[in-house]
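Friendly challenge for the regulars: who can give me the structure tokens for this chain first? No prize, just bragging rights.
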Amino acid sequence: MSSFAPQWFPDTPELASFKTPNLSLRLFGPEHLDFVQKTAAQWEVAQWLAQVPHPYPEDGARTFLTSAEDCFSSGQALRWVVSDRQTGAMLGFVGLDAKAGSDEPWHLGYWFAPEAWGRGVATEAAFHALTFAFWYMELPAIWTGFHVENHASRRVLEKCGFEGWTESSIETVHSGPTPSYETTLSRGSFDEFVFSGGCTMQPQLDRNVPVVWVVAAALFNEQDQVLVAQRPKGKALEGLWEFPGGKIEPNEGPEAALIRELKEELGIDVGIGCLAPLTFASFPYPKFHLMMPLYAARKWQGEPKGVEGQAIKWVSKFELRDLQMPPADEPLVPVIMDWM
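First reply, four minutes later:
Bragging rights claimed.
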């Protein structure tokens, strides 16, 4: 597998679609054909795009749709039409593409109708396409480029975290070799850009995925250590350390679910009065959104053991900080350390 292959790729259009504060991004479909045909045919738009011919063929949008559907089915591209979230008006296009058979980063590209220019639309759409690519697909890097005279596009990309431009040349279907700039953005650099305070936006992706409720416990012993369990082989996130617990069943309260899970997983009996609500985690996994209440407990009956074959161990606050944990558990660590 390529080192630039995604860790996860949406297998349905619904999982690939999302909304941002002002926009809606949905995979390019038949309902978008008229908009794409009309907009791509404008020289104001096509002059900045390498692969859009001018004049635009009468079946150009239909041909592009067939290509987009084939690339999505093969896990090679995501191509979104961007619309106004409130009015539904179509505004432009954003795409993430892999180069088939190549061990190179995926590419970010976009175009927008002239009536959408100067409104921050391109920046918001491109920024959240990057968020989807880095945080859900877990792509390690993305490259992009622009025509040397397209100063507006440069501003958009720099607001998304791209920097360090190098001069290049791109072969366009309508003008031949054209001077351009290009660069690559790594996932680590994107995260640093978002959280360092230099970014003017914050990621906000609203996705139509189910909410899954689980419950977990921070069990403390007399030495002020906390118990962690290792996810077994064959399960998602295998080998990582987490706080014991599990899914809340239908019509089951969180305390009752946790008492049941601790009995099943560790062989201990915990009274409901010994569970103190501590904090909760809210984390967006690719196919669902996890909600996880966390309880603290210092009293129980029995000696904890890995009833289901999982490894368990007691760790100090310093050891806890260095453990490899699922991303949903990591934000819980500072709160637990304050209790230890």
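Residues 121-135 form the longest helix (15 residues). The chain has a mean pLDDT of 94. Your move, everyone else.
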